[in-house]
Amino acid sequence: MTDAPERRFDRHMLEALVCPVTHATLRYDAERQELVSDAAGLAFPIHDGIPIMLIDEARQIKAD
């Protein structure tokens, strides 16, 4: 029996998703598996290929 294939984030989904706070576009951070809203300063996690677009689940990021 083989393991289930790893679920990956479909980058085409970025065309449909926007930040729930600012409605701005998001960028995909493959290393951290997050969708980042630079406008809101938030990073939304991706679990098992599914973006979690809940503000309470987002990580605050600092602008450099």
From TrEMBL:
Gene Ontology CC, one term: cytosol
Superkingdom field: Bacteria
Entry-linked InterPro entries: Trm112-like
Signal peptide stretch: none
Family affiliation: Belongs to the UPF0434 family.
HAMAP family: UPF0434
Protein name: UPF0434 protein A6J80_08930
Source species: Paracoccus yeei
